[in-house]
# Entry
Amino acid sequence: MLTSLWLLLSLAVPVQGSYFSVSCPSRRHCQRALLSNNDIMLHCNTSGAQWHFIFLQNKAIWVYNPASTSNMETMPDGSLLIRNPLSSQTGFYSCRDQEGRKVVQYDIDFQDVETMHITHKDLGQKPLQNETLSLGGKELVFTHWEPWQDCNRCGKPGERKRLGFCYIEESLEKPMPCWLYLGDMKLWSHRMRPEMQVETCHVPCTSLSEEHVTFDDFELSENSESAWLTCPLGSIYRPITWEANSIPLTWKGQLSGQDVNTVLDASNGGSRLQVFQGAIYECFLQQELTARFNPRSKLDVLASLNTEDLQQQPGVEEAWKGKADSVLKGLKLMLLLGTGLGLLGVLFKLFHPSWGRRRDQLLVVK
# Structure
């Protein structure tokens, strides 16, 4: 199936554009909060780049070889690709040139996407409120909101989302992402988690193209009767929408409980969709059609195969007619034989008693 092929290819080599690109000016030190389980690329524009990094939960132990970490890879241009980053990989990432000079450093807080708080403005749902911690002072925990992403549809009502990250602000100090601030301190509260907020939007269409559209036609699982569909190049950092038989699948429908036949995976911003019944599913990335899927039940597949077989073999119908004629002739012959045998039986019964009486009479005469 194409789904399996796509999965294997995506694991084997990074697909251009499937990750979120993060850059920082040369010789600078940049701080960023991101989400776990979503691929990122840290840029380092130098040949022979050497990456060193520290995971804060490992009590500041430097690692000098990204290849020793299974989800990291240094790219030919010197950038560092991190697939499905873990929240435990929060730390400092330093890129150096061949001479050992620092080119750029990233302080990255991978906040746990599984704890993300999701709200929809149209449903009256509220984001998390600010709270105060007591870690020796009065530290304020708040959500730092990223800009709204583009509307995921055009010409029709759509949705747009924005991501929010947990930050801690200390008096007279610059705010920091929560787990960069805490370091290896073991502290967690219900308030300390990322957020995603969604609202309805409506924007006009511009000229769009439908290039590189993936099509997948496959059978639903016999055990669960469901399947996961993945929108190619999708990311929580990009606007995505799905349609089922041309009907939009929205966060509002899911959060309100109206959409029960599909599930948008919040951990990747809806890049993955779980479906439970056959339909034509289409995903749009940045308002452009990217993929079309046609999952079907086993009964639908069998019915389709039977129809295709009859269409692809013009002589099948004639062959069946010939077989039916042969069977009918055979039945007629068997019917004639049965009728003949039945008549013989009747005649035998009719004549048999008279022969018996004659035999008795002859015995009496003797």
Summary: Confidence is low (pLDDT under 50) at residues 1-16, 350-366.
